[in-house]
Structures are given as C-alpha cells and as structure tokens.
Amino acid sequence: MFFPKKVKAQRITVMIGLLLALTSTIALLIKVKSDGVQTLTLGSWAPPFGITMVSDMLSVLLVTSSLIIALFVVWYSFTSIGEDREKAFYYPAIMFMLTGVNGAFTTGDIFNMFVFFEVLLMSSYVLIVLGGEKGQLRESIKYILVNIVSSSLFVITVGYLYSVVGTLNMADISIKLAEIGQAGIITVIAVLFLIVFGIKGAIFPLFFWLPGSYAAPPMPILTLFGALLTKVGVYAIIRTYTLFFTTDIGFTHELLMIISIITIIAGCIGALAYFDVKQIIIYNIVIAVGVILFGASIMNENGMLGSMFYLIHDILIKGALFLLIGIVIKITGTSDLRKMGGLMKRYPTLAWSYLVAAFGLAGIPPLSGFLGKLLIVQGGIEDGHIWQSIFILASSLVVLLSVIRIFIYAFWGEEKVVQEISPKTYRHLLAPTICLVVITVLYGVGSEFVVPFMKDATTVLLDPAVYTDAVFKGVK
Amino acid sequence: MEILMSILIGFLFMAAVYLILSRSLLRIIIGTGLLSHGTHLLLITMGGLNGKAAPVLTDGVTDYVDPIPQALILTAIVISFGVTAFSLVLAYRTYKELGTDNMELMKGTEDND
C-alpha cells in the first residue's frame, strides 16, 4: 500500500503477510484443538457488553482454509493479473477482503459481523471493478446494488433482534432466545436472516446476481470470490441457525431444507445449460451451497459432520478448479467450450490435474468430496429424508457430468487454434495450481487425520451451550 | 413518538423501493440512500425513544437512554456514506464508459459489450 508503483516490493510484502497470518492461524488451530473454544474480549469489556472475538473449531478451520486459498491465488496472480492492476492497489484490496472474511468468521457479535461484511463487500467492489473494462463496470453496478439492499436488510434484522433480546453478543442472544422460546417474531427474524445471508451465500431465489457478477473480473479474483465470499454467507446461516434459532426447528429448518434442495436443482440446471467453462464452475458453487445447507438443516451428528467436511472441501476444490480453468482460458484465449479441443497432447500435466480435481469435486472415493457427501446422505437417511438424500446423490452425477464435459471438450478431440503462451508463464501458472490440487487430494486421502477436528466443530454446532459457556467463562 | 417514526420509516422505504425500481442509475442510487436513511431511523427506534437522561452512570440515575442503538447508527451511517460515495463514483465511470445510465441497456448479454 505504501509503494503502489513498486510491484516487487508489494509482492514480497503480501507474501510475508500471508505466511505470517497462516502460521499464526495454525498455531491457533492447535490451541483450539487442545484447549477448546478461544475467546478475546476487545478492550476488556466483559461479555455481553464488549465485542467478543470467538474462535471455535469451525471458524478457525474456515480461517485457515481461506488463508491457504489466498496464498495460492496471490502466487498465481503474480503471473496472471497484469502489472496495471497490481499497481492499482490489487494486493491491498485482497488483504482487506481477507480481513473482512476472517473477521466475519471469527466475530462473536452480530453487529460486528455486519461491519466485517461491509469491509469484505467494500474490497470486493474494488476487486470486481479493478481494471475498468466495460463488462466489469456493467456487472459491478448490479453487484453493488444487490449488496447495498441486502446490507440494509441486515441492519434492519439486527435492529429487530436487538429490540427483542436487548443484546448483540451472539452467545448472549443464544441464551436469551432460549429463554424466550419461539415467539412469532423470532421466526420472522430467522427468515430475514436467511434472506440476508442467502443473498450473500447464493441460495435458490437469491443467486440471480452471482453468475453475471462472478464472470466479469479476471480469473484470480473470480477464484477468491468463488471460493470464499459465498462461504461467508453459508457460514453465517449455519452459525445463526445452530446458535440462535434452535428452540423450535420445525418451521425454519424445514424451510432451509426445502430451499437447499431447490438450490441444488437450480444449480444443476445451470451447470448443464452453459457451454462457458466459467459459468459451469460458477453454477457448481450454487450446487455446493445447497449440499452444505442441506447437511446443516438436518441438525443431527452425521449431517453436520458431513456439512463441515464438505464446506472446507468446497473452498479448496473450487479454488483449484477455478485456477485450472484459468490456465485453460489463458491457453485457448476463449471461455467457450465449443472453441476448445485437444489440449491433452500438449499439456498433459494440466489435463491430469484437472481430471483429479474434477473427480474430487464430484466425490469419487477416495478424493475429498466423497466423505462429506456420504456423511450428509447418511445423516439425511437417519432422519428419514429419503427423497432429499436421493437428490443429493443424483446431483453428484450431474456435477460429474458437467465437469467431465469440460474435460472431453477441452482436452480430447482434435487440436484447435491455440494461443502461444511461453512455457515459463505456463510453468508459473501451473505451480500454485498443482500445489492446491495436491492439498485437496491430501484432504481427501488423509480424512482420517481431519475427522477429529471436524468432530470438534460439530460438537460446538450441535450444542450451543459449549459456545456460550466459553464466551462467559470466568464472568459468571 | 414510536408510531410517528414507524410511519416515517415506512414512507422512506416506500420511496426507496419506488426509486430503486426505476431505470435511471442516478435515481436508483438516491433510492439506496433513502433506504439506508430509513434503516438508520428504524435502528434508533428499536432501542426505544423514552429515555430522558444521557447514559452517564452515576448513583441515582435510573431513567437513561439506551446508548447501544446510537453507537450502531453511527457505525451504519459511516458505512452507508462510504458505500454511497463509492457507488456514485462508479455510476459516473459507468456512464462515461458505457454511454448510458439506463439499466435496461446494461443487460448482461454479449451484444451489449
């Protein structure tokens, strides 16, 4: 930020910053694993008066994976984003966005969450419009308008909630709402929260802005958005629906389940309808959001565990896939599938890593998507949601079909006109991408190692008392 | 007092929705401005408007105004001010670049590029 014209200095600073952040997060992860939920009250105002930052297992895992994604995206953008954008405060905007994302994951205060949402939205406005191409300007106007309206709705909802419970601390809200029980107004607030976070997280009727806005900016920015921004909305839905609105889950969680199934169907239709690689993967985000929310809406142990697994898996795999098709678009110079072909011969490494990532996304064992989906379906069947579980399984087939279609069109067939990119650029783009694919493979193969972490996250989600006790520890 | 505020807030929301649904970009941005004004008034009304004294805690003070909505509204005003400023600048750039401020002509199809 302090040397906008010196690209090299910026690159070094941002890398050092990300590595430091990642190291401290991993330290925090280990701490949370051994000592349970960690809290920090800002300015030493005891809860519920001050703002509390809370790191339970779910939020610390999300922070870790968002930093991993950011690390590889920044590495990738060294060669792909172009110097003009780098000089126009590209890296500071990314760091600000990470502040917002990680803050929203960590905060324990509902109004503070709104503030962090605004931080990440503001920097995402900057990122989406950076470069000022016509398409970018056109789409960012719509993106901003949608988000201004949803932010206003967020403030309104927080206002309602405040007038009902008289507190903003999330742990305190949880306790107070449990005392009040499910009055009508609480259900209204729950549905309003679903709308607000649904716009951010792209659930069924509210994902209309997503395909257009996400396709506009260049590839590294799209990767960050696709991997992280919708997950913030999903996280917020999971957090509010497991912490606040738990006393009577009959209406709200049923609604969430129905919406998540429709989201999956809508995403499937979109993913099959397009011949544009970007759009196909973007609609896969919508499908994944549906699957995660379905797992969360079941509210039993297997469903929630699967949800956690699938959430982290989806952040990693979407990052990897977007970076891969970024390379494909760079090589072919188009994002239209029908104009591609025969990349297999000249770029075998790219083809194989794409195939691995695609299988991972569809959930072919032992790759990373498998266990999450298995657990979600298991949880669904245990709870008697047979049809919905079958939908989840069928959506896997559609996902597989949509990504394999990219593979067949782009990598098989006869060779079509290819833009010459220098082998050096290709190597520089491939290195971070391969690393990310390897991480997703390890995440799938080494799931034995990950399970205890996920179990911890699930415990907190299923029992709000763990969360509230940790926040009020030493006060009461 | 609260009833009066509710009516005012409802009126602001109505005007905001009307403006946001129009075609001209500038009217839409004015609409979002009205929307955030309505939101802020709603936020301050939610804490109750009955307090008489300032929230300074000393002995014997029982009837004081709730300070939290005021802190919230301050934050929300600053944020919405920033966002409005940004969107105005963006609207200007968009108008310059695309040569129109009509949302109908900004549909995301290839021939509009």
Q: How would you describe what is shown here?
A:
The complex is a heterodimer of chains A (476) and B (113). Chain A is 78% helix and 2% strand. Chain A has 476 residues and is mainly alpha-helical. In chain A, α1 runs antiparallel to α2 (57-80) and α13 (301-332) packs antiparallel against α18 (423-445). Chain B has helices at 2-20, 25-46, 67-98. The mean pLDDT of chain B is 85. Chain B has one domain: Helix Hairpins (Orthogonal Bundle), CATH 1.10.287. Chains A and B meet through α5 and α6 of A and α2 and α3 of B. Chain B: Belongs to the CPA3 antiporters (TC 2.A.63) subunit C family. Chain B: This is Na(+)/H(+) antiporter subunit C. Chain B: Pfam families: Oxidored_q2 (PF00420). Chain B: The chain crosses the membrane at residues 6-21, 28-48, 68-92.
Quick tags:
heterodimer, A: 476 residues, mainly alpha, 2 strands, 2% strand, B: mainly alpha, Helix Hairpins
Nutshell version of this structure?
Chain A has 476 residues and is mainly alpha-helical.
Topology-level CATH name of chain B = Helix Hairpins
- Give the count of helical stretches of chain A: 20
Cα Rg of chain A: 22 Å
Number of helical regions of chain B: 3
Shape of chain B: elongated
Largest sheet of chain A: 2 strands, antiparallel
The quaternary organization reads as heterodimer
Q: What's the mean pLDDT score of chain B?
A: 85
What is the typical, i.e. mean, pLDDT of chain A? 87
What structural category characterises the helix and strand content of chain B? mainly alpha
User: In sequence order, what are the helices and strands of chain A, one letter per element?
Assistant: HEEHHHHHHHHHHHHHHHHHHH
Q: Strand count, sense and closure of the main sheet of chain B?
A: none
DSSP strand tally of chain A: 2
CATH class of chain B: Mainly Alpha
**Tertiary shape of chain A:** globular
Class of secondary structure makeup of chain A: mainly alpha
Point out poorly predicted stretches of chain B: none
**What is the terminal separation of chain A in angstroms?**
44 Å
Keywords (chain B): Cell membrane, Membrane, Transmembrane, Transmembrane helix
InterPro entries (chain B): CPA3_antiporter_subunitC, NUOK/Mnh_C1-like
Membrane topology (chain B): Multi-pass membrane protein
Organism (chain B): Psychrobacillus glaciei
